[in-house]
TrEMBL record:
<dbReference type="GO" id="GO:0016616">
    <property type="term" value="F:oxidoreductase activity, acting on the CH-OH group of donors, NAD or NADP as acceptor"/>
</dbReference>
<protein>
    <submittedName>
        <fullName>NAD(P)-dependent dehydrogenase, short-chain alcohol dehydrogenase family</fullName>
    </submittedName>
</protein>
<dbReference type="InterPro" id="IPR002347">
    <property type="entry name" value="SDR_fam"/>
</dbReference>
<dbReference type="InterPro" id="IPR052184">
    <property type="entry name" value="SDR_enzymes"/>
</dbReference>
<dbReference type="Pfam" id="PF00106">
    <property type="entry name" value="adh_short"/>
</dbReference>
<dbReference type="InterPro" id="IPR036291">
    <property type="entry name" value="NAD(P)-bd_dom_sf"/>
</dbReference>
Amino acid sequence: MKPVAVIAGANSAIATAMIPALAEKYRVVAVTRPDRKLGVSAGDQVDGHLSCDYSEPALEELAESIRSEWEEIHLLVCAVGTLHGANLTPEKRLAELDRDQLDQYFQVNAITPALILKHLLPLVPRGEPAKAAFLSAKIGGIGDNRLGGWYGYRASKAALNMLLKTASVELSRSHRKLSLVALHPGTTDSPLSEPFTSNVPDDNLYSPETTADRLVSVISGLTPEDTGRFIHWDGSDLPW
Ligand SMILES: NC(=O)c1ccc[n+]([C@@H]2O[C@H](COP(=O)([O-])OP(=O)(O)OC[C@H]3O[C@@H](n4cnc5c(N)ncnc54)[C@H](OP(=O)(O)O)[C@@H]3O)[C@@H](O)[C@H]2O)c1
């Protein structure tokens, strides 16, 4: 029987495009927020679709549902992330910082992914090879920040990176065969990037399918020695 992959934020453009390739090797369990329908092609290829509002009680229930039907997780992918929304606009200047906005960025981009890892980790076998890949962003690299702007998005992805790095240190002792990594997908045509892509040259704006192929290829090649890395879609290391 194929191992199980859980993909959170499964309705994201990138995650949806990853599902067909993941389904070749895994039984895929898609997790979305409540009331989200999966796209037809992704929906046909998943083994199960669960919803979660990512509160801690809901994450406990999610873990229990996965445990009772699929037992173990060999691959966890998290694509949850936000950049803009009804009350959310990336800040260009310090004067635009707003407590509620910053709270949203940190909740969605850093805290939710970390809690997904916390609650689903008990389903990851300790003694077998397993992988956990979280979609971060190059723009969250502190050492790479030359342009400024987008305070909340950058800072929340930097926080995600630190949470993942810290977990990777701890888990390298308890889960020696786990590779836990942060992945940069590249600028990809999606609802998240759509308002900001007019100045991105066409050859630097990738389709979700191209990005998905690249990310699945990086994930396929992961070994436990890769744990704690921040990885570009081409497989190279990114500065934290
Ligand atoms: N597109 C890019 O250029 C780019 C570049 C660098 C990094 N990334 C990262 O790649 C990941 C996927 O992005 P994408 O481009 O595929 O974007 P997307 O299509 O907008 O998907 C983002 C997904 O995150 C989940 N999400 C959004 N708001 C949420 C909230 N308030 N609470 C919980 N979940 C929420 C949703 O999943 P459900 O609908 O399934 O619940 C949504 O589909 C994100 O982490 C993003 O930061 C993207």
